[in-house]
Automatic annotation (TrEMBL):
InterPro entries: Aminoacid_DH-like_N_sf, Glu/Leu/Phe/Val/Trp_DH, Glu/Leu/Phe/Val/Trp_DH_C, Glu/Leu/Phe/Val/Trp_DH_dimer, Glu/Leu/Phe/Val_DH_AS, Glu_DH, NAD(P)-bd_dom_sf, NAD_bind_Glu_DH
Protein name per Swiss-Prot or TrEMBL: Glutamate dehydrogenase
Alphabetized GO MF terms: glutamate dehydrogenase (NAD+) activity; nucleotide binding
UniProt key word Lipid biosynthesis: no
A Pfam family this chain is assigned to: ELFV_dehydrog
Keyword Transcription regulation: no
UniProt KW keywords: NAD, Nucleotide-binding, Oxidoreductase
Glutamate/phenylalanine/leucine/valine/L-tryptophan dehydrogenase C-terminal domain ranges (all copies): 185-469
PANTHER family per the UniProt record, alphabetical: GLUTAMATE DEHYDROGENASE, GLUTAMATE DEHYDROGENASE 1, MITOCHONDRIAL
Amino acid sequence: MRDNSFLESVGRYFDAAAPHTGLPEGLLSQIKICNSVYQIYFPVKINGEVQVIEAYRAQHSHHRSPTKGGIRYSNHVNQEEVVALATLMSYKCAIVDVPFGGAKGGVRINPWEYTEEDLEKITRRYTTELIRRKFIGPAIDVPAPDYGTGPREMAWIYDTYRSFHPDDINAAGCVTGKPVSQNGVRGRTEATGRGVFYGIREACNQPDLMDRLGLNLGIKGKTMVVQGLGNVGSHTATISQDEGGVVIIGVSEVEGAIYNPDGFDIHDVIRHRAEHGSILTYPGAKAFGKEERRAVMEFECDILVPAALENQIDEHNAGNVKAKIVAEAANGPVTASGAAILAELGVVVLPDIYLNAGGVTVSYFEWLKNLSHMRFGRLQKRFDEQNYQRIVEQIETTTGRAISDRDRQMIIHGADEIDLVRSGLEETMITGFQGIYELYKEKEGIKDLRTAAFALAISKISNDYISLGIWP
């Protein structure tokens, strides 16, 4: 196995945390190993010629059912990567108390080289192969979007599954991340990025942690650099700016990176790239070309958010990181060797198995919605609004003062689905961080938040193995 491969890094993180759990070697080995991997080769006719597509689905752990994890489309997909991602999903779900085992899928293509019609053919055929081997279903394995996929692909998966199972009233629960019009849930698209924001904000609200880093308490006013303006990076940046008061001073994309120590409006940067095809021409910022785009990791800032792919900070560039906090919005952006160097520098790493759990958390909400056949808020929204209206009227009668229309609307507003989803996600991310941080502070020998997160996840999974009778 090559040094610092993604899967090797995940294994090294597990091995570092395992001694702190007090569990027997046999149980640790069972938790660590990937239970099932399905490698697929299937033909698809593209432009009149048949192409053989390579694809995977890995189910790391069945301590909870169904298993859960995204499907990525990338020409870098391989079995090792998919297994590593499925492994992280098991730990991620355990940390935020989402009752799924970990899974992941991948199709080895560059999606930007195919037409929409071609992608639909590939997606439907991939789904068919999963159905044939019972690797998908609302009680078996529930995919979701990942790099290179989105609501469109999830809708194709849902439709394909439904055509094979026309009598399954819970068919919509076979996949999450669907369009809202196709039984999706409001707030799913932004979920991972919003979860990253909540996680960073909670870390910045810890007085002892901020004292150690020499930073002011709270997230407001802190400087942030974001690597990658895809779904996760763009939502992390916009929400951190709009709701947290963070100053975005650097971003990178495939074409390069830009930096301005005085900050810029991230919405304006995103609009500029959409209109001009590049961030490099954004006015007032120092530009770094494609060959220099990894320089974004070395920008001076309080918070660095790697939100692209794995293995972006390693032994070669970790020593040049100037951020006080590295927030792993992507899966595995810091290798084990890179993490060791960051620890020596005193950099706090908010680990991926916690920080980007917002996506699977809201996917869980969508799955519950599909199984209940009920939109969140439908039962109580109108009742709450009427009840709040009576309270406002009573206050006005008692005080003899009228409340402004703006304040009235704000007070009597009943929770919509998006409000409940965001509230549930916020609660999940706050509780998840508290569990990790308490273990980090209390457990002697645990030196960083990642080790604490892995130890917490391993312990929770072991409890399931034992209580459910899976472990003899």
